[in-house]
Design brief:
By secondary structure, the chain is of the alpha+beta class. Helices cover about 30% and strands about 30% of the residues. One of its GO terms (molecular function) is RNA binding.
């Protein structure tokens, strides 16, 4: 199957280095301390953050930092007619761990000892790049909750199909069997918090794909900061009234 046409267009009409349209909104869960809806193309994710609050299980309490917990789920309707594994399957457990570890790298947990921060992420609609969308949603929800962070964490994927590096893979491209790199970074600190790759690439090709993913992460970071700035302006306007 040809994933990039001779004219340089992908199946969904994008150029190889073009991201899907991204959209975000915050404060979408009324009773959460922070929440966000994040969309990357047809992939839609909602995240809710609760805390910092008292640790529910005292045996898990950390005296020098906050306990960060994460739960990842997929809505029953998220994948259409594709088979969905039940809650608690190995993939959900792994992605929950990936999101938690990625968020722990940015949260200043030492400022909140003996407390707990819960992050809930649910995929409402899946069309590739769900891990990246979940991380972006969680990062935005943490910012909405006012959780102290070293920097925002943003994520984007890139792949290699038809001898062409592609940014922000959709489901068809992600399922094609080519190399797929999922990256998470703290853009201001220039630090990598997540790097996962399926299949093998030469060093030169990997560097090109990696750089493409970095550019995607930075574009997401720019957009997220605009969303947060706009929200701040709206709050200041309301207080002024």
């Amino acid at each position: 199957m040809e994933y990039v046409s001779p004219e340089g267009l992908r199946l969904d009409g994008r150029r190889p280095m073009e991201m899907r349209q991204i959209r975000a909104d915050i404060g979408v869960v009324a009773k959460a301390d922070g929440s966000a809806l994040f969309e990357m193309g047809n992939t839609k994710v909602i995240a809710a953050v609760y805390g910092p609050r008292e640790v529910q299980n005292r045996s898990q309490q950390l005296n020098d930092s906050a306990l960060v917990r994460c739960e990842y789920t997929m809505a029953n309707f998220s994948t259409g007619d594709r088979m969905r594994k039940p809650k608690g399957d190995r993939r959900s457990t792994e992605i929950s761990l990936v999101i938690r570890q990625t968020m722990e790298a940015c949260i200043m947990t030492h400022l909140m000892p003996r407390s707990q921060i819960d992050i809930f992420v649910q995929v409402l609609q899946a069309d590739g790049g769900t891990r990246s969308a979940c991380i972006n949603a969680a990062s935005l929800a943490l910012a909405d909750a006012g959780i102290p962070m070293r920097d925002l964490v943003t994520s984007c994927s890139a792949g290699y199909l038809n001898s062409t590096p592609l940014l922000d893979l959709n489901y068809i491209e992600d399922s094609a069997g080519g190399a797929d790199v999922t990256l998470g970074i703290m853009p201001k600190l220039d630090k990598v918090t997540l790097l996962q790759m399926d299949a093998k690439l030469s060093v030169e090709t990997f560097e090109n794909v990696m750089q493409l993913a970095i550019e995607g992460c930075k574009a997401v970071a720019t957009y997220i900061r605009e969303v947060l700035l706009e929200n701040t302006k709206q709050l200041e306007y309301r207080r002024g009234i």
